[in-house]
Design a protein that fits this description.
By secondary structure, the chain is α/β, with parallel strands linked by helices. The protein has helices spanning about 50-55, 80-90, 110-120, 125-140, 145-150, 160-170, 190-205, 215-220, 240-245, 250-255, 295-300, and strands at about 5-15, 20-30, 35-40, 65-70, 75, 95, 175-180, 210-215, 225-230, 235-240, 305-310, 315. The chain folds into two domains: about 5-90 and about 175-270, Rossmann fold (3-Layer(aba) Sandwich); about 105-170, no CATH class. About 30% of the residues lie in helices and about 25% in strands.
């Protein structure tokens, strides 16, 4: 088996706040392979986006990576000088943000921004860079790409702006692409088109993707594996089929049960009781225990360890819903 292109081990990201030190990401570990799509799923505030930003070295004060390792092609990223990280961003590592205006400069034409992105990493002429930019726009389904290069971001619809952002992210065929809920603000039709295009482009280029979302329905037919996050920790991982059909962790089952399409007509929408705990005041033991119908005294006092299950699965739970833990 080929080694992973990206390896994250025991990642801890903290933020200094008035309430004290807040641990947004706590001991996160996973591998990502070329051509693979890993869905990182969880409620808002679970640490998904912070994990993505940490991979690209975009954690700024008062945040910091307190511990852990992030390697790309076996090379450690944590602690690299900013100049070296800047050389990797956009070329070997790329990110698509939820709001395309985070990526696009509103006062510069699209061709200017794309040409700069190309020439930042390669010594090519302006004419050659513009032609590559035109081809990139055509690849993500933007009509009349030659004319669109002369437009400004405000002249595009939200869906078109997101396509431009995706085109920029894929200009250098990065080894790893982090997508932070890039289709959340789009209508369902445009969302489906962009998902299909990104999946096709990733398969064509061999790019590994970390797709961050709170919507299980988005990645159900899109991801190869799923990692479920809660309160800064990954609580379950496995293939998309295994996790969605036979969840091990009660939180995963709660997320699946909350999808509206799974509810019968006229029946109240299933919900996970309570709210996500404050990361500054996590309860002792399992952080999900105050909301879990299976919680016992052990759950409320002892943090469950990462436990391997059959089928290359992992879960953090004292009372799993299904499956037998593998012997150590």
């Amino acid at each position: 088996m080929t080694p992973p292109i990206l390896t994250v081990r025991d990642l801890v990201v903290t933020f200094g706040t008035r309430e004290g030190v807040l641990t947004a990401v706590n001991g996160v570990s996973f591998d990502l392979y070329l051509g693979e799509v890993l869905g990182l799923v969880g409620e808002s505030g679970s640490g998904k986006s912070v994990t993505g930003l940490a991979i690209l070295g975009l954690i700024d004060p008062p945040g910091q990576i307190a511990r852990g390792s992030i390697t790309l092609d076996g090379a450690e990223l944590i602690g690299k000088p900013e100049e070296e990280l800047r050389a990797l961003r956009g070329k070997r590592l790329a990110m698509i943000f939820q709001d395309p205006m985070t990526t696009l400069n509103p006062v510069l034409r699209i061709d200017t921004q794309m040409i700069e992105a190309i020439q930042a990493h390669e010594r090519v002429s302006g004419k050659a860079a513009r032609e590559r930019a035109r081809q990139a726009l055509a690849r993500v389904g933007i009509p009349s790409p030659e004319e669109r290069l002369d437009a400004y971001p405000h002249q595009f619809s939200g869906g078109m702006r997101q396509r431009v952002a995706i085109a920029i992210a894929l200009l250098h065929r990065p080894a790893v692409l982090v997508a932070d809920e890039p289709t959340t603000a789009l209508d369902v039709t445009i969302q489906a088109q962009i998902l299909a295009e990104v999946q096709s482009l990733a398969a064509e280029t061999g790019t590994a993707m970390l797709w961050i979302t709170h919507d299980l329905s988005v990645i159900a037919g899109f991801a190869d594996r799923i990692a479920v996050m809660y309160a800064g920790r990954i609580v379950e991982t496995g293939s998309v089929v295994d996790v969605l059909e036979t969840p091990i962790h009660p939180y995963t089952a709660g997320l699946i049960g909350s999808v509206p399409s799974r509810n019968k007509r006229g029946v109240p929408l299933a919900q996970i009781p309570g709210m996500t705990p404050s990361l500054a005041k996590l309860p002792p033991g399992c952080p999900f225990s105050p909301r879990c119908p299976r919680a016992t005294v052990t759950c409320r006092t002892t943090m469950p360890a990462e436990t391997p299950f059959a089928g290359a699965r992992m879960a953090r739970c004292h009372h799993p819903l299904t499956g037998e833990p593998l012997a150590a």
